[in-house]
Amino acid sequence: MNNREKLVQCAVELFYKKGYDAVGVQEIVDAAGVTKPTLYHYFGSKYGLLEQAVHEKYQLFHQDVRDAMSESGDLVQTLQNVARAYINGFRRDEQSYMWFISMMYAGEESASHTVIRPVVREQFREIRDIFLQHEKLLGNMRGRQDQYALGFIGLLHHYIYYRYLHKGEEDRQISESEIYEIVHQFLYGIFV
């Protein structure tokens, strides 16, 4: 792992554990075993490091979600694919996933919230597009795409968050049958 990668990894770990505002540049460079000029060379500032860390950690997750959305299928299958992508993103990098969740709930003017806001908006638009593409399936979906996107994303995040907090390492695995149940629990609200 090169110095740049070490800085990103250490920053993510520290930002996750303590929050962006509670972590100083010195603490980051000490954890990475480099000097302040090295951080400034690669990122320009602590904020630049935050932006780059979010970008790098989010890209793989985002690509998985986009791939899941591009697979052909009806609404149920598409939502199951997306739910699986979210869960796989969590499995692959629990710390980064939970860090993203914490940034969503940070103060509106905080650096963390400012950096994650475009990611959240992009994620929302993409999930909303699923419901737009399938609105002819159900008449009651028309005009409610925002509501459904928010509900689906929220259900996934909170299900994953609950499993993270309340289950041991071995119990964090979410099975295919649970993915099916999550999606169908969500859909029953649409079909009623």
Automatic annotation (TrEMBL):
Protein's UniProt keywords contain tRNA-binding: no
Record's keyword annotation contains Transcription: yes
Gene Ontology molecular functions: DNA-binding transcription factor activity; transcription cis-regulatory region binding
Record's keyword terms, sorted: DNA-binding, Transcription, Transcription regulation
Pfam families tied to this protein: TetR_N (PF00440)
HTH tetR-type domain ranges (all copies): 1-61
DNA-binding region per UniProt: 24-43
PANTHER family: HTH-TYPE TRANSCRIPTIONAL REGULATOR BETI (PTHR30055:SF234), HTH-TYPE TRANSCRIPTIONAL REGULATOR RUTR (PTHR30055)
Protein's name according to its UniProt entry: TetR/AcrR family transcriptional regulator
